[in-house]
């Protein structure tokens, strides 16, 4: 996404696992660039229990769109041992990432179905983040009970 410096409101940033379950969620101002939210999102992923061995504390791969194409982010992910799949601006098309990004877009559509998140009514960011977390919890509950 591009930055509209005069835009009011907020953005929801989201990391999901392969099937669309939200792992980490954050909000930021609409006038902030997307790339500034990647590091806090990855650090916010909780330890995930696997069938065998210790809990996983980081994803194996991370698919992202062109808004996250910065060398410092690529280096940071590489140092943490996370294989990145980020489309390069001006070189690659975002079409190939569409095979993986549709799960994130679907989860964002599920979040948009929550009336409270469709339009931000809360003045405090903590309250909006709390409602976003509740919506993510409901998405996880609905997906895991079916």
Mean pLDDT, to the nearest integer, reads 81
| Major sheet strand order | 1-2
Q: What letter string, H or E per element, gives the SSE order?
A: EEHEHEHHH
Total count of domains? 1
CATH topological fold name? Nucleotidyltransferase, domain 5
The description of the largest β-sheet is: 2 strands, antiparallel
Which architecture name does CATH use? 2-Layer Sandwich
Give the N-terminus to C-terminus distance in angstroms: 33 Å
What level of helicity do the residues show? 25-40%
CATH C-level class = Alpha Beta
Shape: globular
| Count of β-strands | 4
Number of helices: 5
Structural class: alpha+beta
Unreliable runs, pLDDT <50, ≥5 residues? none
Describe this structure as you would to a colleague:
- By secondary structure, the protein is of the alpha+beta class.
- It has a single domain (10-145), classed as 2-Layer Sandwich (Nucleotidyltransferase, domain 5), CATH 3.30.420.
- The protein contains 5 helices and 4 strands; from the N terminus they run ββαβαβααα.
- The strands form 2 sheets. A two-stranded antiparallel sheet has the order 1-2.
- Strand 3, helix 2 and strand 4 (83-86) form a beta-alpha-beta unit.
- It is globular, with a radius of gyration of 16 Å.
- The chain starts with 9 loop residues before the first strand and ends with a helix.
């Amino acid at each position: 996404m591009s930055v509209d410096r005069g835009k009011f409101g907020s953005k929801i940033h989201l990391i999901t696992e392969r099937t669309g379950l939200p792992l980490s969620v954050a909000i930021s101002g609409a006038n902030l660039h997307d790339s500034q939210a990647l590091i806090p999102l990855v650090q916010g992923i909780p330890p995930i229990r696997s069938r065998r061995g210790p809990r996983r504390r980081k994803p194996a791969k991370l698919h992202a769109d062109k808004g996250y194409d910065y060398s410092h982010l690529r280096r940071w992910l590489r140092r943490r041992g996370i294989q990145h799949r980020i489309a390069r601006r001006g070189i690659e098309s975002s079409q190939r990432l569409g095979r993986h990004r549709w799960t994130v877009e679907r989860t964002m559509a599920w979040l948009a179905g929550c009336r409270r998140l469709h339009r931000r009514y809360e003045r405090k960011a903590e309250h909006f983040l709390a409602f976003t977390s509740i919506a993510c919890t409901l998405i996880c509950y609905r997906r895991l009970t079916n």
